[in-house]
Amino acid sequence: MGYDAALSQLRGLLAESGSGNGRLALVEGGLASGKTHLLHEFSRQATKSGALVLTATGSRAERELPMGIVDQLFRSAGPAAPLPEHAARLIGITDGTDGTDEQTGPCGADQLTPYGTLDTTVRELCGLLLDGCADQPLVLAVDDVQFADAPSLRLLLSLQRRMVSARLLIVLNEWHRGKPTLPEFRAELTRHPYTQIRLAPLSVEDITTLLAKETSVPEPAPVAQGYHRLTGGNPMLLHAALDDRAGAVSADEDADRDGPVVGVAYAQAVLAGLYRWDAELLSVARAAAVLGDRSTPALIAQLLGSRPEDTEELVRILVDAGLLLGWRSRLPERDAGRAARLTHRRAEPGTGRAADFGQLPPVAVAALANPAVGAAEADTPAWRAAEIPAANGHGTARAVAALYGVVAGRGRFDGRRVLSPEAAERVREGQGSCRDLVLGAGFEGETEAGLGLWLSGPQGSYGPNPRACGHDGFGGSCGLADPEAGVSLGYVMNRMGPHIADDPRKTALVGALYDAL
User: Fold this and answer.
1) Which of 65-79, 285-299, 389-403 has the lowest mean pLDDT?
2) Rounded Cα distance, 473 and 305, in Å
3) Which of 199, 231, 377, 497 is most buried per CB count within 10 Å?
4) How far is CA 510 from the centre of its chain?
5) Domain Beta-lactamase-related spans what residues (predicted)?
6) Angle between helices 150-162 and 118-132 (to 10 degrees)
7) What is the rounded CA–CA span in Å between residue 29 and residue 17?
8) Hey, is 221 helix, strand or coil?
9) pTM for this structure?
10) Burial 197-233 (b: 16+ CB within 10 A, else e)
């Protein structure tokens, strides 16, 4: 069901409940599908119509806080309807400091067991809420009900059983998953009359209408196709991409106004959605990005060391949310808009550096000029999409620093073991000093390589520690790791320099890093 149809159905339920026919709506949707926005807009319209709207939001942090949702509901009325003293006293009855009640036992969010005095508390709170419906229609709106505490869930079920002739509408937002998060609560709730509303992704037609209303795109229909491919119809991702587009056009009138623009807002929306739902989703998304076109649920599960059936469910969530295309990350098209445009400053004729290039040995010419590659070639879709080992990796400086951070942390990074200490140490296992035939023109004298990375050596290319290691990249970029100092560094740029290695900007950054230690 689309957003407008869902909002219209909620308005209809409000009208029915206002006539003394209690109603309950369960709104389901995937990751960032617009459930919260729908609830806020409906609550605004319900308040404008004269209903008293009480709101609450479930949270992982308060899942073990007894009556946390009920407390939010009563307090949300504000100064116009302060928390009744009797309600405050009742809520306080189960307010244990450790998530348990002396007489009732554990209050886990998925447990609906007998609660002793909680029965009395729930019954009296139900009476207060039902009495409040006598003067005006009442709406209870709970977002992310999957994180609600067990006593509050018990109250909601008790209200559902007693609201047949009340002017009461209960709207519960819940994420849609293959396996219900609260199976016992859902089983009890669905035994009684309720309305199910499942939000669907935006269609191309929906996006076309939105573009026509909110942007200056002269022909929104073909542009909508691109935004649908980019976002999968996810409302949060779409609005973030439109914000990025507006910012790009505002900053540069010559920016492409006809296609999707991906920037900071889009990246933040992706991360916000992943962190809000489930920590495991972020791991699955990262694994899909690493595997690229080879990604399958089975390979993702193998990479993460997780159960295949659990991984398949998380993959389905990401696909439904528009973050994965099939099993693969939507990276090729999306990252084309994120990659910085490179510029190239060539060496001046007659300089020593230009002479170095002119005196390269044949093997270096074959490697670096066969054909010659500069900024113009590196900015092409073909270069970015190609898989060229050790040549055209794309990433941010933070990502480069994180990669080298695995070596700097002796195999650990961000609290996780990525490599064994022995494997991390082997990376900088020296293979003997020599004059590198390809990149030797960039260094003064001989260098020593480890297993894939250069050692800093006596010349200090990667800091004063001769055992530090790193590598220089296209146009001046670099990364380094120093396990003894416990630091890593990543540097990328869009203005390419003419140096094969030891770009002056890199040298200055390395010096500043060690000066700060």
Assistant:
1) 285-299
2) 33
3) 231
4) 32
5) 362-505
6) 50
7) 24
8) helix
9) 0.55
10) bebbbbebebbbebbeeeeebeebeebbebbbbbbbb
